[in-house]
Amino acid sequence: MKSFANEEEQFASLLRARLPALPDDGFSQRVVAQLPVPRRPYRGLAWGSGGAIVGAVFAIGKGAAWSGPAHGGWEWNTSFAPAAASVANPWLLLTLGVTGFSLLIAYTIARLHAQS
Amino acid sequence: MISPDSELIVRTLAEGDRDAFGALVRRHQSAVRNFLRHLSRNDAALADDLAQETFLHAYRRLGQFRGDSTFVTWLLGIAHNHFRNARRRQKDQVELNENLPDESAGELAAAASDLRHDLAEALRGLSVDEQLVLHLGYQQGLSHAEIAAVTVWPLGTVKTHLNRGKEKLRHLLAAWNPQS
């Protein structure tokens, strides 16, 4: 009678022999093709920030233009003071403040997403 | 030079390197697909669908892999979960013979003459759980602790299933080789 160890080896080898390595057959490529696109949380924020800056510059510039129509057009020297005055407008300050605060929140959320 | 799993995982996580993850898939696809084919009774299409889900899930949750087990053990655990979920969803469509009655060793031995050259058939005489631990232990080469991690069973349960399964197979082998 065979020993226990031999018997163990016998069916261990039988069992192992039943498992051939499966050829890939394009399986890996199909999986990689379905992988989700890596998230870029800061890309949307960059567009948002750019838009906010352009909007702010436009708003200040517009405020300056409105405040000094007598100057007959936009000139840096003559428009700087009205532009500064328009920044002092509490409503514009409030708008800029809200925009800045929103961007700060958006940045914080994007950073948390990037870390998760 | 072959990069170890850990290096490919780090590259996937840190650089979003899809090729690195692709290398992991190529390396472990056979183990995962074989495991799922075993669980689904050789339903290759279902097994490959579940294997695909397994790897996509692994990619999304790669940051949660802590390296407590080998990567392939972690993957097999995910595959096992996906299979159980699919089984719950498709209980009516997929017949799994989960509750095969435990045949006595004598009945198995009587059937053995017909199964002489077909170990796969003989294995079907074991309970699903016994087949599972034998598959993971012998065909996937996992340790008892790793099997416990994949199945989320206590180590004692794993050992019990393994011993019972081996005992039944031993009877079958004895019946196939009476001189031994």
Tell me what you see in this structure.
The complex is a heterodimer of chains A (116) and B (180). With 116 residues, chain A is an all-alpha fold. In chain A, 74% of the residues lie in helices and 0% in strands. Chain A contains five helices and no strands. The two termini of chain A are 61 Å apart. With 180 residues, chain B is mostly helical. Chain B contains nine helices and no strands. Chain B is elongated, with a radius of gyration of 18 Å. Chains A and B meet through α1 and α2 of A and α2, α3, α7 and α9 of B.
Keywords:
heterodimer, A: 116 residues, mainly alpha, 74% helix, B: 180 residues, 69% helix
- Terminal CA distance of chain B: 46 Å
Q: Assembly state here? A: heterodimer
Number of strands of chain B: 0
- How much of the sequence of chain B is in beta strands? under 5%
The total of beta strands of chain A comes to 0
Low-confidence runs of chain B: 96-116
Share of helix of chain B, binned:
55-70%
The helicity of chain A comes to: over 70%
Given the helix and strand composition of chain A, which structural class is it? Answer: mainly alpha
Runs of chain A in which pLDDT lies below 50 for 5 or more consecutive residues are none
Structural class of chain B: mainly alpha
